Amino acid sequence: xxxxxxxxxxxxxxxxxxxxxxxxxxxxxxxxxxxxxxxxxxxxxxxxxxxxxxxxxxxxxxxxxxxxxxxxxxxxxxxxxxxxxxxxxxxxxxxxxxxxxxxxxxxxxxxxxxxxxxxxxxxxxxxxxxxxxxxxxxxxxxxxxxxxxxxxxxxxxxxxxxxxxxxxxxxxxxxxxxxxxxxxxxxxxxxxxxxxxxxxxxxxxxxxxxxxxxxxxxxxxxxxxxxxxxxxxxxxxxxxxxxxxxxxxxxxxxxxxxxxxxxxxxxxxxxxxxxxxxxxxxxxxxxxxxxxxxxxxxxxxxxxxxxxxxxxxxxxxxxxxxxxxxxxxxxxxxxxxxxxxxxxxxxxxxxxxxxxxxxxxxxxxxxxxxxxxxxxxxxxxxxxxxxxxxxxxxxxxxxxxxxxxxxxxxxxxxxxxxxxxxxxxxxxxxxxxxxxxxxxxxxxxxxxxxxxxxxxxxxxxxxxxxxxxxxxxxxxxxxxxxxxxxxxxxxxxxxxxxxxxxxxxxxxxxxxxxxxxxxxxxxxxxxxxxxxxxxxxxxxxxxxxxxxxxxxxxxxxxxxxxxxxxxxxxxxxxxxxxxxxxxxxxxxxxxxxxxxxxxxxxxxxxxxxxxxxxxxxxxxxxxxxxxxxxxxxxxxxxxxxxxxxxxxxxxxxxx
Length: 655
What we know:
It is built from 24 helices and 23 strands. The protein is an alpha/beta fold. Strands 7, 8, 9, 10, 11, 12, 13 and 14 form an eight-stranded parallel sheet that branches. A six-stranded mixed sheet has the order 1-2-3-4-5-6, sandwiched between helices. The protein has a six-stranded parallel sheet with strand order 17-16-18-22-15-23, with helices on both faces. It is globular and about 80 Å long.
């Protein structure tokens, strides 16, 4: 099936009746055709008929960009150059938003469309009634060009200039169009695409060595179907490295089961408040664009994605069996242990005694079903970042002591140290209660699509494994740039320089980074996560402003394209090991508790695995006149990073 509504050689297009071309476009458009769209197509056809007379090549109208769920107005393949044209019919100016839009399309083709990856790609914004602008060619390293601007009078001249100046390459337009499209959407884009009805195979890649997300979803489907058929209660643990798509897998399962059988009332539950807020708001905004009332859109998304604590509180009040038969618990390793749950219940719910851990209570809620039920736990390695987060141990203790009739499905990797199960699953549960399914582990990061070993590199840094870190850095740096600086202004400028189109940038810091205040980083000033993650460059509340700081609690489960990670003295590298500190009152205090040390290390693990395309580490110089920010608090960390081979961006500029 063609990705375009209409495609042909330029020669055929010029010979074809414009009405016929319009008719073919209309036939492929499966939605109500509005007058504005009709007029736009008619104007584009007329303009291209005049413009393309001197050229030979291929033309694609309304070319699909699956990751973004949108279509490019026109793609031209001429002399081995891919021209991406975004038309603004009747516009008298070239808006920054439209320039970002056409750049986004070009980058999407370059990054995810196999047959575009070696081609020069030229994005052109055509504002038909705007004045002519200078069209200086500026090529980036990946052979994508800075967007050009054109009007209805000079489009042909600009295309000709590109052909004369750019060395194309042999391209068969038909084979180019058929090239595999292997997108890696952000979790926000993925949620929107799944909600629109796309399947996970359409919006995810399948690389060598990776367990495909589709296989994981298929394995879960089989488990659910077996549970229904055999009237069983089962729990599955899906594990994966940071950025491997666990949340995406969970959203896909919830969406698929809603489509398969609405009586299952499958729901995605997360204790990650910022993630729930951002995903819901993204889906609501998407629905509003389709002219759904915001109130109705909000109600609909709440039935698909819920906060796990609200789910818990609902069934504390209601002793009946839940409506939901399939529940997906995101970040299950962060469920609370019994002391934390009891403390919360006493402080917030007025319950003087509560003797259950959160896992035990949640399994108990689903155990109220008299026939069958399925719990799917999404588990991230090294992701516990707060006091009272139980890890996996509490789930297995609850299954052993209270729910031995529940069948448990795991992957072999559940025993890895990052998952902190403490003992092998067999030490908790009898073999008759356990079953291994290899597809329940997602082994390869798809967040950092430019370098899939970033999570391993981060692990080596935090484990003080110098040799491994040096080797991995040399391997990934060319495709996933990582730099070091001691100047926050340099870090901000680097982010702005890297980002093209609407690629999202932002500043990150640990919630314990209390002494970054003199640098202008206030980790206690809460951001509005919906605005920070979703708003555009014109909104100072967005991440683009590089003002508000996201901590590990804001960013876990979400991502940026380019990030600056600010490193404070809460985690210091001294004499070959990490030293853990907390700022109390007016001074740093040592952290001796091993759990709290682990939470702090995991906070930085989260921060270091949020960027999809590259990052810069900012380590302050300190201040010899401030006893809370002495240079020696930071110098050891800075020298450690330099010793790992991380290039200092200041020095790169000087060279």
